[in-house]
Amino acid sequence: MKSFLTLAAAALPFLHGADAFWRMNCAVIQTGRVDPLVNPGTVAAHAHSIVGGSNIGVNSTYASMVNSSCTSCELRSDKSAYWTPLLYYQYPNGSFFEVPHGGSVVYYLARGPNVTSIIPFPPGFKILSGDKSARSYDNETLTWGNAAYPGRPIADRVSFACLPASGPEPPNQPYMFNVTSCVDGMRAQIAFQACWNGVDLYKSDNSHVAYLSGIDNGICPPGYQHQLPMIFVETNYAVSQVPNATDDSKFVFSQGDPTGFGFHGDFINGWDMAVQTEAVNTCLFNGAPDGVVQECPVLNADDTNGYAQNCPEQPPQVDEPVRGLIERLPGCINITYGPQAAPAASMACAATVAKPYITPTPDSTPLPTASPTPGAMFGLPLQQYMGCYNDTLGGSGYYRTLNSVEYVNYTNMSVEFCQAYCMSLGYTLSGVEYAQECHCDNEINPTAVAALNGTVNSCTWSCGGTLTAGGTQEFCGGLGFIDVYRNTNTSFVPFGDNSNTAGNAQPYTPAGGFGSNYLGCYSDTPGQLRTLPGASVPDGWNNMTIEVCAAFCAQSGGYQYYGLEYASQCYCGNEIVPNSMLLTPTTSPTNDTCQMRCKGSEPEVCGGPGVMSVYNNTAYIPPIPPAIVTHVGKYGTKACVTDPNSNGRPLQGGYTTGTNMTVEVCVKYCLGQYYHYAGIEYGVECYCGNEIVASSGGVYASCNATDEMLCPGNNFEFCGGRGFMNVYYSPDL
Ligand SMILES: *[C@@H]1O[C@H](CO)[C@@H](O)[C@H](O)[C@H]1NC(C)=O
Ligand SMILES: *[C@@H]1O[C@H](CO)[C@@H](O)[C@H](O)[C@H]1NC(C)=O
Ligand SMILES: *[C@@H]1O[C@H](CO)[C@@H](O)[C@H](O)[C@H]1NC(C)=O
Ligand SMILES: *[C@@H]1O[C@H](CO)[C@@H](O)[C@H](O)[C@H]1NC(C)=O
Ligand SMILES: *[C@@H]1O[C@H](CO)[C@@H](O)[C@H](O)[C@H]1NC(C)=O
Ligand SMILES: *[C@@H]1O[C@H](CO)[C@@H](O)[C@H](O)[C@H]1NC(C)=O
Ligand SMILES: *[C@@H]1O[C@H](CO)[C@@H](O)[C@H](O)[C@H]1NC(C)=O
Ligand SMILES: *[C@@H]1O[C@H](CO)[C@@H](O)[C@H](O)[C@H]1NC(C)=O
Ligand SMILES: *[C@@H]1O[C@H](CO)[C@@H](O)[C@H](O)[C@H]1NC(C)=O
Ligand SMILES: *[C@@H]1O[C@H](CO)[C@@H](O)[C@H](O)[C@H]1NC(C)=O
Ligand SMILES: *[C@@H]1O[C@H](CO)[C@@H](O)[C@H](O)[C@H]1NC(C)=O
Ligand SMILES: *[C@@H]1O[C@H](CO)[C@@H](O)[C@H](O)[C@H]1NC(C)=O
């Protein structure tokens, strides 16, 4: 998708003052030799790129334009069309390549001292500004003016800007920048006549209109006292994107103009008159001076950022190649350098090249636009519209409003398609987004938020399926916004894969749903220990849920705390490490950044990137640390005795072993055989005797806990170690 925002930001270098205006971004709707003003009903002499209403064609009228099913401009009630020449790059071998169109910006400006008397463009109104045959700057033909408002060369209606990648823009000039180095494009600009004779909607010599004395300012001449908004069109040509450009060749406009002096623009009104009238009356007389559509209520209600997708370029009406690499300019136009005006194009070409086929100009009835109100039923039976949700809160992945399933297909996407698709997969909720996406789930992400209501309508993108198939034009969300529907049919049994119990989705209620043992969302400190430093599943499991993590930590030795991070990871710990930070002391994750849905149960929340949803295992009983048993009955510890095992054992009376060995087992065995001493060695070996046999080399020593081995029959007791025994003694038997 092209971004037109950069164009809008670099607005109107030669305008001044704080006069009101609005502007809108536009994408191409039609390309080719189409010009219903100059060549109605037939192929035009040269090729244009057209933005605006989808019904533009060689026979277009106001009636057909307002009937356009859509517009490639931002304001949906403006089905007008605006066109300018195509720009070509000519290679040294003489062939041409169409310079990619980088989008247009159309301005409606209130200019001069008489702005309060501006009237809207009437139905049927058309204007052409500029002179296709000009090849030099005419400094002698001036606009009408007087002493207070002097005239100005009408050649100033055309100007060019070179947009560098960075740094200051060179000054505008009245001829084109014949270079590929305008990295962000060459912007061709044309100002239109804003003064009208009040009689003729169009005259082929454009004598029904006149320029303001200063073109972008000033007053209207006698006989043209009806002031209109001044249209100003910027067309961005992506000159830096020409492939294989060399230093020794040139750019040329489709009218055979390598200079740019012959740049021109056309306008045919296709406005919804009520909207245009209100916009002129409320936003041009005293409106916001920065051109932001959002500050003009009647236009804001109508605004969409989906214009390029809502209304893609239509198939060419004139069937001849104008794009890519072509041998000659469309219409066999010859290049003329001037400085004198170019001669009218001869029709000699027609003798050698057959007239291309022209598809009939469309005059379709507009598709009804359906926008349900939240709570209303829409689409398939029993499907209720939940509203437009902001789907940009976490970027992508497990942050979406609906998360279980995503399906993308522009050509068949519609509200009904998505509702049926989600039902077929067992989901109650369906959501359409970005004209082409369908998302399903059984619960709305607890962190999802409804989009601002009223001030901005963010779900304005037409469904790809209904747009291409005709029928009711529906909306399918927007860029980062999703229209959500719920299947209210109570006999529908959801079986989508986010269910916690087979066959039945578990509604997930964040209020209290985390339990009193939810401690909150903790942030790991980069480069330091994780919030929970114990056992972990750092690579993540697809079945991860809060319950799976709790079980994992319980089975991994038992931990006081467990935590979930990044949708599928689980961490355990007996402490929350001090350098981690509790983000919000809340029992709900909606206010913090733990917003990722658990991979194994999408209604649940499992932390986020670098943040952990931490729980306290309140059923956890801390283990008693292993220790040397001090007494078993009347036997008391005699510390440790070394066992060099070079000359027999230190205890030589009796012996037993076993995988269930404990201190108690050994003492009981020795007592049963009437020995005063019991010694446990190497975890599992039990020796008895009535003395420490000196010849064995064994001597008393203090026990070193780090060398002790756990008793296999009781993990909280030590049972000697390698080369020494824990010795117990009783003087009585
Ligand atoms: C127009 O430009 C020419 C050439 O620069 C100059 O001789 C002439 O005086 C100018 N005419 C006006 C009206 O400025
Ligand atoms: C301002 O507009 C009104 C109404 O069209 C017209 O009568 C008047 O002459 C205009 N004034 C100027 C200075 O053009
Ligand atoms: C540019 O050059 C490449 C490589 O020679 C060639 O494949 C391509 O067709 C050329 N493109 C144009 C528009 O000349
Ligand atoms: C455009 O630039 C090329 C290459 O420098 C040059 O040959 C050509 O004459 C220029 N065209 C115009 C109209 O200045
Ligand atoms: C272009 O020039 C050639 C030769 O000068 C001429 O035959 C042809 O008619 C011209 N084409 C147009 C459209 O004027
Ligand atoms: C333009 O209108 C004329 C007159 O109604 C009609 O004959 C012609 O077929 C139309 N052309 C196209 C391309 O629609
Ligand atoms: C999109 O849907 C159309 C119409 O059902 C189908 O023909 C096409 O194969 C689908 N495309 C993809 C990528 O699934
Ligand atoms: C959508 O959410 C983003 C991120 O929090 C926020 O910047 C934006 O203003 C929200 N837009 C609307 C229309 O709610
Ligand atoms: C959204 O706005 C409409 C119209 O103003 C209103 O009826 C509806 O209740 C609002 N919805 C919400 C969720 O605020
Ligand atoms: C979850 O998945 C992991 C890895 O595939 C597996 O080891 C574990 O047993 C599973 N746990 C449950 C409760 O299904
Ligand atoms: C949500 O966060 C904000 C900003 O940190 C805080 O002022 C507010 O009290 C928090 N709300 C809850 C319910 O924790
Ligand atoms: C976790 O639970 C235990 C047992 O209920 C309690 O002693 C401990 O203070 C809790 N930890 C935190 C951080 O709340």
UniProtKB/TrEMBL annotation:
PANTHER family: DOMAIN PROTEIN, PUTATIVE (AFU_ORTHOLOGUE AFUA_6G11970)-RELATED (PTHR43662:SF3), PTHR43662. This is WSC domain-containing protein. Pfam families: DUF1996, WSC. Residues 382-488, 515-618, 634-731 form the WSC domain. Residues 1-20 form the signal peptide. It comes from the Eukaryota. InterPro entries: DUF1996, WSC_carb-bd. Keywords: Signal.
